[in-house]
Amino acid sequence: MRVTKLLVVGAGPAGVAAALMASSLGMRTTLIEAGQVGEKLQAIGALENVPGGWSKGAELAEGLATDVERLQAGGRCALVHGQVERIVGTDDQVEVVLASGGTLVGNAAVVATGVHSLRTQDVDWIDASAELTLPPLWRTSAGELEAARHTVVLGGDRPLGTWLRAHPHAAVELEVLYPAVDAYKIAEVAEDPRVRAYEIEHVVAQTSVDGVHLTVEQTVGGLLTVTADVVLGNMGSKPAVPDGDLVRGPDGYCPPTVQHPRILIAGDLRSARFQRIASAQGSGAEAVLAHYYRAVDAPN
Questions:
Q1: Cα–Cα distances in Å, from 227 out to 150, 164, 200?
Q2: Among 27, 84, 89, 203, which residue has the fewest nearby CB atoms (within 10 Å)?
Q3: Where, if anywhere, are coiled coils annotated (predicted)?
Q4: Which has the closest alpha carbon to 111: 209, 38, 6, 202?
Q5: In this structure, are 165 and 215 located in the same domain?
């Protein structure tokens, strides 16, 4: 059987797992990444549900980079640094168009571009002044928050729990304002005494000379006004979907079962409910296997 050329878009856990599986099946792979291999993992302080003894995101990121270097050294994988602008599937190939103007062509593409953090303008429960930009909680160090007088976190997404587990001895107090849809996630950190959580309907955030002034409409308890010197975003994420032929579901994510047969979806891009490192790795390998067996079973 002839060697298959596979394009893999994104070099996080799902993309690297896809490249490794492809190599084991004799496929030559081009791995495309805008940043560094495993870049987002660098800011994840604690890993508790990833097999293999990994305890920190930076350690796993280093391991992924080593895997890619090994594939490159064996001539089984080429790493291309570039921003993907568009992915197009045809009857016999997939084209990946880069922002730089280049085009890469393969028999199939595994798309593992992951997610972006939501911004205040992406959610309907926050009104924020135009000049206000919220740093994400998951990229914030313990030292930064220990030095703060009053820290407010907007949103109860799971990076809150990850941050707390990564910094178990940090002397911080986090005032978390969250919408009702995040209630089940807040329950996971309810026993941490460093968290004071308030379910809210709406918040208006405006910069002031003293920091950030917040007018909060609580679900129970009426209006609350707060002034914080540090306000962090933790509202969740949205899929990072390149233009082209990827099919989105009603929630904006890309279900694997409805895509072009040569476009394979892996990692966090599949669904808001499968955003875990271990499931991302499995999905990357599974996408490649699905493509491999489809090619094997196809009539010559």
A1: 8, 23, 16
A2: 89
A3: none
A4: 6
A5: yes
